[in-house]
Amino acid sequence: MxxxxxxxxxxxxxxxxxxxxxxxxxxxxxxxxxxxxFFRERTQLYGSLARTVVxxxxxxxxxxxxxxxxxxxxxxxxxxxxxxxxAIVFASFQSAISIIFDxxxxxxKEILVAPIPRTSIVIGKGLAGALMATLQGTLIFVxxxxxxxxxxxxxxxxxxxxxxxxxxxxxxxxxxxxSRMRSFEGFGTINNFIILPLYFxxxxxxxxxxxxxWLQVIALFxxxxxxxxxxxxxxxxxxxxxxALDLGVVVGFAVVILSAATFVFGRQE
Length: 269
What we know:
Distance between the termini: 51 Å
Shape: globular
Largest sheet: none
């Protein structure tokens, strides 16, 4: 009979430390809960598609004679990745409202007193928000043939990866705000205050190369600028910044914001 060899003390201590930081089962449970609620309330999904139709086919058609797209692209082709960015921004911030929803109905208190690391709660919420944002952004590919965008399969997969990373960062911003908010109304007001500047100063709707210099400088500090640039590069072949810089900023943004959200969320009582 083979003897069981006890794990070294340092290994056990390392496993316990990791367990204190990450509880995979809790992450999956929280993520699944938010996803189930999302699929039961499909108004967000329908609203995202309706918003795309309005902005792409009404506003886009109206502006294509006024806005000159770079690299000989038609305006509808140029703005198509911007529609994906819009879906990601709205979906990510909207998903973070589940923090307030859970607080309102007492579920947040239950998971806060449970032996679940706060890091796992934030990651579970962030992953759910990023998946919902990616789904809504991916559905916009349905409209691609109508505007003349024909992406390769690898470009679609790469775009989904960009949307997932961007959704993680933006959901982290939403969690940061929701952790300090006590009402749906206050959360909505702050969201609108952040969403609109974040979106419009990203190059999603118009080329930043035609914008005033001061606006171009501000856009450099906007992480969504690099996500939009990466989506546009993958789908339209038009890059403003090096792809490695875009990817580095998007990944760094997600890591920093989720870390900050974990710190702020962990100070809740």
